[in-house]
Amino acid sequence: MRTLRPRGVGLSVALLWGVSVQLIAQGWSRLVGSDLFAPTGGGRGLASAGAFSGAVIAFAFGECVRRGVGWSRRVVVALGLALTALGIASLPGSVRDLEHGLVWSTVPTAVLLTVAPLMAVWMHSACSRSWFRLVTSEIARRRHGGVWVATLVLVAVVSGLLVAYAEARHR
C-alpha cells in the first residue's frame, strides 16, 4: 500500500472545500445584506439556507475523498468533466467581459478550465483507481492528515473567497 500514490486527491479536496468556503461566504453575505461576496437582492433567507446546505455537502464530499471512500473518486471524475464543460461554455462570456475591461468573470472560468480537468484526469489515473480500491479509511486519513490538511484548508479559504468575491463583482 505504501507504494501506491494517488494523484489528484489534494487538488480534489482543495476544490471541494474551496466550494464550501465560497458558498459559506456567499450565504453569509446574502444573510447580512452585504454585496462583498454575493449580490444583494431578495430571498436572503432561502438563498442563504441553500448556500449553507451546499457548503455542508461540498465539505462532506471532500472529506470522503480525503478518507479514500471508493465511490467518491468516480464522482470526482464526473464532476471534473462536468465543471470543465461548464468552463468551456463560460469562455465566450469571459472573453466578451475582458473586451469590456471586466476581469473578475475570468477567475471562476480559469478555475473551471484548469483545476477541473486536472482533477478529472488525475483521479482517473491507474494509480488513483488502485489506491481508492485498496486503501482503508484509517490509512487514507493518516496519509492525508496533519500539515497536508492545514495546507488544503488555507488553499480552500483563499480560493473560495476569491471566487466568491469574483462572482459578486461579475453580476
Describe, in plain words, how this protein is organized in 3D.
This protein is an all-alpha fold. It has one domain (9-170). The protein is 80% helix and 0% strand. It is built from seven helices and no strands. It has helices spanning 9-32, 44-66, 70-99, 106-124, 126-134, 137-143, 147-170. The longest helix is centred in the middle third of the chain and has 30 residues, at 70-99. The chain is globular and about 50 Å long. It starts with 8 loop residues before the first helix and ends with a helix. The relative contact order is 0.21. The model has no long low-confidence stretch (mean pLDDT 93).
List keywords for this structure.
171 residues; mainly alpha; 0% strand
Per the principal axes of the C-alpha atoms, what is the gross shape?
globular
Q: Please, how many domains? A: 1
Distance between the termini: 48 Å
Biggest sheet features: none
SS strand fraction: under 5%
- Rg, alpha carbons: 17 Å
Q: What structural class should be given to the helix and strand makeup? A: mainly alpha
pLDDT below 50 for ≥5 consecutive residues: which ranges? none
How many helices does DSSP assign?
7
Please provide the count of β strands.
0
Share of helical residues: over 70%
- Average the pLDDT over all residues and give the rounded result: 93
What series of H and E elements makes up the topology?
A: HHHHHHH
